[in-house]
């Protein structure tokens, strides 16, 4: 019997699934776009509907032989649930910064260089719930609340085991990924805010860990085998890294989307709040990097897709424009310069659009090179090869310019869909299960 593995990606615009066989070959893909007008009160129902829909779209002959499923979600999208897994509040999305009101309290709890010190972190949102949303309610001893991430809750719908997460999603909750435990500062900081017998932080496992077989009810509804295993998931960005093909320390993935995101696989972790750098654990290795506000959004401010393609062909990447740009849409960057007051540098502007575009492409390439140089200066494994994902990977002129500044081998990502990375986690979980 041929076994198949499903990876499901919950991104910002919709849900997608990819089904692979044991050799990693894609055999089916499905999607469910989210309506742009959805309100916060509708998200829970929308996620549940889309989860079932992207599975039910998969042809039956594949579904009948699915061995394992893994799900990724947007990092720091969180829910507070009752013991039945029913959300008691509307979820707070990854980019919601309402918790800016509790940042001063958060800073008293967390170490100063920890990634949780952000209004959009999972921990900031939890503290906001504890101090604002639940200020007028006193839950009974018999009604604990479970704090979950988006991927945790979606997996729960399939396996029925409440309160389990992975250490990728839990990094921004404050989980110590080096020592694989909740740190004392987190537990001690939460105690004055809530009864920790009533607040259930998730049990943490490694991404890809088999959690449980699918519930009989879900197996029947979705026409999946009762032996299908649901595995711990990951975040959308790490799933995209896993899909790229990068596996060896020194290999990195640059995502050239609206923003510029760098992830370098390293033997050692690098965490530096001053430069907006943090590291995710990846087995015995570390995925270290950061995100800059430069990127494709700046290019789209000045050029259409057609003009970008046309003008790029006219650029000679071997001749430098001598323009010294720091391309940003508005002031402020996060990495490799972490300065909210940093101003865009887009002058002087030449009369010819081809020369202007070349200056922009060179400016973004310089920021990318500066980012990788900084990671290595702070202790990351030296860069040897860069995989490229995102729309910018399709521009050969830009690739040539970037290679000039990076001076390493460059290849396009083997797969660019985050759902493929999650399917690999499901495959890994299925293999682990057979080895037990």
Give a description of the structure.
It is a single chain. The protein is an alpha/beta fold and 436 residues long. It has 13 helices and 18 strands. The protein has helices at 43-56, 60-63, 103-109, 122-133, 150-159, 184-190, 216-222, 236-244, 296-302, 305-313, 353-377, 396-406, 418-435, and strands at 4-10, 14-21, 26-33, 66-73, 78-81, 145-149, 164-166, 199-200, 203-205, 210-213, 229-231, 234-235, 251-256, 260-266, 278-282, 285-292, 385-389, 409-412. Strands 1, 2, 3, 4, 10, 11 and 12 form a seven-stranded mixed sheet that branches. Helix 8 (236-244) packs across helix 13 (418-435). It is globular. It starts with a strand and ends with a helix. The model has no long low-confidence stretch (mean pLDDT 93).
């Amino acid at each position: 019997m041929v076994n198949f593995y499903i990876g499901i990606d919950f991104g910002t615009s919709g849900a997608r699934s990819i089904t692979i066989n044991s050799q990693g070959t894609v055999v089916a893909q499905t999607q469910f776009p989210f309506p742009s007008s959805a309100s916060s009160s509708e998200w829970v129902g929308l996620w549940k509907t889309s989860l079932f829909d992207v599975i039910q779209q998969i042809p039956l002959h594949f579904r009948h032989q699915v061995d394992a499923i893994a799900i990724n979600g947007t990092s720091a999208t969180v829910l507070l649930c009752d013991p039945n897994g029913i959300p008691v509040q509307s979820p707070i999305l990854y980019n919601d910064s309402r918790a800016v009101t509790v940042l001063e309290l958060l800073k008293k709890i967390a170490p100063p260089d920890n990634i949780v010190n952000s209004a959009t972190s999972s921990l900031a949102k939890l503290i906001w719930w504890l101090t604002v949303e639940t200020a007028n309610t006193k839950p009974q001893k018999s009604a604990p609340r479970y704090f979950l991430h988006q991927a945790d809750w979606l997996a729960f719908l399939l396996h029925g085991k409440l309160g389990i997460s992975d250490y990728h999603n839990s990094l921004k909750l404050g989980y110590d990924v080096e020592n694989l435990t909740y740190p004392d500062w987190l537990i001690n900081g939460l105690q004055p805010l809530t009864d920790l017998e009533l607040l259930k932080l998730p049990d943490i496992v490694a991404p890809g860990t088999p959690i449980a077989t699918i519930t009989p009810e879900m197996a029947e509804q979705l026409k999946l085998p009762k032996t299908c295993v649901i595995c711990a998931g990951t975040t959308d960005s790490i799933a995209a890294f896993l899909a790229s093909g990068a596996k060896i320390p020194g290999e990195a993935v640059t995502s050239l989307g609206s923003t510029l995101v760098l992830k370098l696989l390293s033997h050692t972790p690098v965490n530096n709040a001053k430069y907006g750098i943090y590291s995710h654990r990846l087995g015995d290795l570390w995925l270290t990097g950061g995100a800059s506000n430069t990127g494709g959004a700046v290019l789209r401010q000045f050029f259409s897709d057609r003009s970008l393609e046309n003008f790029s062909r006219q650029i000679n990447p071997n001749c430098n424009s001598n323009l010294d740009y720091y391309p940003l849409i508005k002031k402020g960057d996060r990495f490799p310069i972490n300065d909210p007051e940093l101003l865009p540098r887009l002058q002087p502007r030449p009369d010819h659009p081809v020369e202007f575009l070349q200056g922009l492409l060179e400016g973004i390439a310089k920021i990318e090179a500066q980012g990788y140089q900084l990671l290595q200066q702070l202790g990351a494994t030296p860069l040897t090869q860069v995989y490229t994902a995102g729309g910018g990977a399709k521009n050969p002129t830009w690739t040539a310019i970037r290679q000039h500044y990076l001076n390493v081998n460059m290849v396009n990502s083997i797969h660019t869909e985050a759902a493929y990375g999650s399917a690999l986690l499901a495959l890994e979980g299925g293999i682990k299960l057979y080895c037990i």
